[in-house]
Amino acid sequence: MMAFLAGCLEAEFAAVRDYLQVSDASVSRIASALEEAGYVKVRKGYVGRRPRTWLSLTRDGRAALTRHLAALQAIVDAAREAGTRAPD
Questions:
Q1: What is d(CA 19, CA 16) in angstroms, rounded to the nearest whole number?
Q2: Which 3 state secondary structure label does DSSP give 7?
Q3: What is the pLDDT of residues 54-78, one digit of tens each?
Q4: Cβ(57)–Cβ(80) under 8 Å?
Q5: pTM for this structure?
Q6: Which residues touch 1 (CB under 8 Å, ≥6 apart)?
């Protein structure tokens, strides 16, 4: 969810659900946990008379995602380095 939201300023709940290919309940649970952590902002409103929910990353959420991706890259780099030192 965070990677998807990193690519936009804001996304409608349904777009996030469709991209992740999970249920409404799953998106809601994940979004609530990320909102509680301060990583996602949830905005509710209406389009005409229909209620809508939009999700966006907070500044802290973007920073956390950047740190996470850097940690994953460090694992990849370490694995590559270990592979080049492996005996034949």
A1: 5
A2: coil
A3: 999 999 999 999 999 999 999 999 9
A4: no
A5: 0.86
A6: 16, 20, 27, 30, 31, 34, 40, 55
Is residue 46 within 8 A of residue 85, CB to CB? The reply is: no
Calpha distance 17→72 (Å, rounded): 25
DSSP states along 20-85: HT--HHHHHHHHHHHHHTTSEEEEEEEETTEEEEEEEE-HHHHHHHHHHHHHHHHHHHHHHHHHHT
Q: Which residues are CB-contacts of 5 (< 8 A; sequence separation ≥ 6)?
A: 11, 16, 40, 55, 56, 57, 61
Cα 27 to Cα 40: distance, rounded to the nearest angstrom: 12
C-alpha to C-alpha distance for 73 and 25, rounded to whole angstroms:
31
Residue 16 · residue 1 · CB < 8 Å? yes
The 10s digit of each residue's pLDDT in 5-59 is: 999 999 999 999 999 999 999 999 999 999 999 999 999 999 999 999 999 999 9
